[in-house]
């Protein structure tokens, strides 16, 4: 028998409420020990006085909810204790529970792991719980809720069912070749596998929107020293996230700020000024800046408007289709620049706020292009790798020189799909074989 586990579900600290979950075969005994008899009615909120089992001291007066298995989050017997939120109350209740036999503190993720083991969640849904907890924007929340609702599991399950059926038919054709099986059986399987490979291609060709939305769109701010990069970061973040100084080379390392632009998550990175330097620390900062430029989804290339028509050549070299051109210190211009840059450039002043609204709107538009355009099923590199392996196996199957190798590639494809949800069942093959074919009649 598994040990009974317990842990707080809420953040430790001063608050109105703290919640403790207990899950496992001795959950009922734990509730009776700390909350007294009788055991609360299932799924009904019951007010109880909670006492220390060993000393009888009153610990709190709170609410107890009882969820008998299997109708619970983990699939086991589960109880929840809703306590007052003071540190002393929570500490006393946790200490009392730890003193009960066969109870121990849950490890990170252990409740969700048990829910997976008991079939309450597949792997993608369990990951969605973590994504929902970590969601910082409305778009991230919506994506996590779709995953938790089983969107990925349903599609992967449909593909797995088709692969399982195809593999069962192949196994039947190989193992029962002398039986009266339908003609063209293998050819029909190959056609269906080609259709499925095309569907996988469509989902994989999504510009990684799901992963970008989950982690946030990476935006690197790049430019020469004293171009106004740190001031621009602070203006966008609306706080002093980076040190601003007239001394060139103040920023040595990458400074990140997370932004929520109407539900779209952005990660802004202020970087060291691009220039040659004899200072080994600053040179390392420049190297990191160039690395971040290569890794970023978007770049804000910053130029000092007061230096027009001169532009920093190292920054100009980074201009590409994924760049926004920003001229800072627009407040120092007496009017329109004598040598205006391209019409796409944005003039801003972190001091007066001039042009900041335009910059934010352009950022929002670019972020929407990257992060929207259809719901993406794939939200993690693990999913992408598994779907890619499945598609590759199906492509090999299409040109397999023998039925045996074709069946093996289908097995590999099915196994790759199973890595997404954690569901691979060999027994399904036997069920389909004996349901679809009357072998040995």
Unreliable stretches (pLDDT < 50, length at least 5) are 436-441
**Tally of contiguous helical segments:** 15
Radius of gyration, rounded?
30 Å
**Could you give the count of β-strands?**
12
As a percent range, the share of helical residues equals 40-55%
Helix/strand order, N-terminal first: EEHEEEHEHHHHHHEHEEHEHEEHHHH
What is the structural class? alpha/beta
Share of β-strand residues: 15-25%
Largest sheet: 6 strands, mixed
**Order of strands in the sheet with the most strands?**
3-4-5-2-1-6
Span of the ends, CA to CA: 44 Å
Outline: flat
What do these coordinates show?
With 441 residues, this protein is α/β, with parallel strands linked by helices. It contains 15 helices and twelve strands. It has helices at 27-35, 87-98, 110-117, 123-134, 138-148, 151-175, 185-204, 209-215, 229-237, 280-295, 313-316, 356-371, 381-398, 403-421, 427-436; strands at 4-8, 17-23, 46-51, 58-67, 78-84, 103-105, 217-223, 255-261, 264-270, 298-304, 323-328, 346-347. It has a six-stranded mixed β-sheet. Strands 8-9-7-10-11-12 form a six-stranded mixed β-sheet, sandwiched between helices. The longest helix is centred in the middle third of the chain and has 25 residues, at 151-175. It is flat, with a radius of gyration of 30 Å.
């Amino acid at each position: 028998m598994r040990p009974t586990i317990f842990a707080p579900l809420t953040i430790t600290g001063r608050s109105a409420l703290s919640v403790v979950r207990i899950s496992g075969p001795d959950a009922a005994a734990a509730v009776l020990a700390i909350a007294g008899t009788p055991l609360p009615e299932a799924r009904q909120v019951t007010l109880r006085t909670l006492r220390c089992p060993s000393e009888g001291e009153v610990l709190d007066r709170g609410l107890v909810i009882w969820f008998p298995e299997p109708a619970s989050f983990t699939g086991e017997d589960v109880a929840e204790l809703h306590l007052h939120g003071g540190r002393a109350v929570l500490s006393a209740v946790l200490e009392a529970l730890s003193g009960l036999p066969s109870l121990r503190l849950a490890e990170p993720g252990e409740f969700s792991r048990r829910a997976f083991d008991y079939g309450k969640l597949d792997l993608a849904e369990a990951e969605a719980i973590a994504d929902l907890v970590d969601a910082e924007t409305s778009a991230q929340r919506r994506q996590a809720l779709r995953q938790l609702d089983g969107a990925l599991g349903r599609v992967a399950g449909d593909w797995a069912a088709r692969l399982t059926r195809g593999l069962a038919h192949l196994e039947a054709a190989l193992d029962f070749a002398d039986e009266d099986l339908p003609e063209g059986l293998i050819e029909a399987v190959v056609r269906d596998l080609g259709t499925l490979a095309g569907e996988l291609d469509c989902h994989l060709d999504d510009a990684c929107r799901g992963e970008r939305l989950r982690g946030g769109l990476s935006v690197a701010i790049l430019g020469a020293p004293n171009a106004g990069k740190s001031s621009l970061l602070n203006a966008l973040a609306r706080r002093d996230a980076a040190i601003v100084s007239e001394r060139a080379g103040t920023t040595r390392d990458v400074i990140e700020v997370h932004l929520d632009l109407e539900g779209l998550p952005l990660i802004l990175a202020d970087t060291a000024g691009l220039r040659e330097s004899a200072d080994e620390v600053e040179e390392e900062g420049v190297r990191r800046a160039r690395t971040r430029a290569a890794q970023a989804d978007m770049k804000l290339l910053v130029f000092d408007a007061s230096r027009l028509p001169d532009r920093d050549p190292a920054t100009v070299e980074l201009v590409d289709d994924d760049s926004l051109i920003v001229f800072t210190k627009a407040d120092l211009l007496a009017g329109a620049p004598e040598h205006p840059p391209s019409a796409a450039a944005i003039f801003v002043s972190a001091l007066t706020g001039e042009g900041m609204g335009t910059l934010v709107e352009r950022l929002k538009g670019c972020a929407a292009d990257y992060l929207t355009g259809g719901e993406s099923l794939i939200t993690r590199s693990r999913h992408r790798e598994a779907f890619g392996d499945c598609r590759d196996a199906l492509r090999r199957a299409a040109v397999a020189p023998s039925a045996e190798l074709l069946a093996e590639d289908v097995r590999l494809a099915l196994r790759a799909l199973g890595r997404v949800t954690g569901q691979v069942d060999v027994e399904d093959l036997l069920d389909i074989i004996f349901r679809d074919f009357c072998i040995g009649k």
